[in-house]
Design brief:
Layout (H helix, E strand, L loop, with lengths): L3 E4 L1 E3 L9 E4 L4 E4 L5 E3 L9 E2 L7 H7 L1 E5 L6 E4 L5 E3 L6 E4 L11 E2 L6 H12 L7 H5 L5 E30 L6 E23 L6 H5 L10 E2 L9 E2 L6 H21 L6 E30 L2 E8 L13 H26 L1
Parallel strand pairs: 1-7, 11-16, 12-15
Antiparallel strand pairs: 2-10, 3-4, 4-5, 6-16, 7-8, 9-10, 11-14, 12-13, 12-16, 16-17
């Protein structure tokens, strides 16, 4: 192939029948779906987070933009890779190939959070949770469409840091004064200042072409106490990609999240209705990160001629957003909320007179 980089790959061929071994969460190891052969995956757990100053991954951009291919270990066919793919099923023999770590540019994963259940259990969990969601249309709950389920590991970065912040600002709250026809609501302003120490732990930032930070947070939490050291064997049977932007841009994202955490922690100290001004000056120390692979199931389906894509936490089974929403239920709740606010006001006017 002209101007295409050849990458080495590893496969998971079954030693008994030659078919592919795939990681089975229930068996906590590799399993051949054809003959039932099992192989144990020995796991280890170490603290491999590292400081994130002076991290250089300039090669990642050029590597992702370049044309790449591998030779299938099973049938010898040439397979082209898209942008940041590092795991692909051979279109000719259906065996899975994972790019060897030595040929992947950029940072290598430190950790992985394993899938804890398979696709059948995922579908059962999906149906169970959907039926409990109020805003999902009733017809959808009664007859959930067929799903195309896919398991994938998405790349993310877990950050730790300690911060100390000095702040000052001006908040306000609404207070009622007077009675009857003299009743009124006034805005009371008050100044705040002080300091805050905050420990930021396992703050997760996605770096995937498949989902956004918002979609990720809808599936929170993940239990980081159950993370294991990264091993390629965990990837067999799942779609995997390398992170899709340079590390310094990911750091920019986590710094924004850190600042938002600090602001929220400050405001939790006060009873207020609004913020006129809040100035925060923060300093950070003990800044560490780990590159981590996170488990997700995706459910793709059609409902009323519209395509939907819903994600599920592959560790806990929590379903995120992306489900069909009943417009009637949303409208009803909106009207009810307006009535709850409006009725006391109307009564106050009537009895005030």
């Amino acid at each position: 192939m002209n101007n295409s980089i050849k990458l080495e790959s590893i496969d998971s061929k079954c030693p008994n029948c030659g078919n592919s071994l795939k990681y089975s969460p229930e068996d906590v190891g590799l399993k051949c779906e054809s003959c039932g052969t099992r192989e144990v995956v020995e796991y280890s757990v170490q603290n491999k987070k590292q400081p994130y100053d002076n991290v250089n991954d300039d090669e990642i951009v050029a590597w992702q933009k370049s044309k790449k291919h591998i030779k299938c270990k099973s049938c010898g066919s040439t397979i082209e890779l898209e942008n940041n793919e590092i795991s692909i099923d051979c279109p000719y023999c259906d065996s899975q190939n994972v790019v060897a770590q030595k040929d992947i540019k950029g940072l290598n994963p430190s950790f992985l959070i394993k899938f804890t259940f398979g696709r059948k259990t995922a579908l059962a969990k999906f149906k169970e949770q959907v039926k409990k969601k109020f805003f999902v249309p009733r017809p959808f709950k009664k007859d959930i469409p067929e799903n195309q389920i896919e398991g994938f590991y998405f790349p993310a970065f877990s950050f730790d840091a300690d911060s100390v912040s000095a702040y000052s600002g001006r908040l306000y709250r609404y207070e009622s004064r007077g009675y009857g026809d003299k009743a009124r609501t006034v805005t009371v302003y008050f100044n705040v200042s002080g300091s805050l120490a905050f420990n930021h732990r396992d703050v997760l930032v996605e770096s995937s072409s498949r989902l956004s930070q918002y979609q990720l947070e809808q599936m929170f939490p993940y239990n980081f106490d159950l993370k294991v050291d990264f091993k390629p064997e965990y990837l067999f049977g799942y779609v995997v990609e390398q992170y899709n932007e340079q590390f310094d841009k990911i750091v920019d994202k986590v710094e924004y999240i850190f600042k938002d955490q600090i602001k929220s922690a400050i405001l939790r100290k006060y009873h207020y209705d609004g913020v006129e001004r809040l100035d925060v000056n923060s300093s950070f120390s003990n800044e560490w990160f780990g590159y981590i692979m996170m488990p997700v199931y995706s459910f793709e389906y059609n409902y009323k001629k519209k395509k939907y894509l819903t994600y599920m936490n592959g560790q806990t089974g929590k379903v995120g957003g992306g489900l069909p929403i009943s417009k009637i239920k949303v409208a009803f709740c909106s009207i009810l909320a307006l009535l709850i606010v409006a009725v006391p006001v109307v009564l106050a006017i009537i009895f005030g007179e």
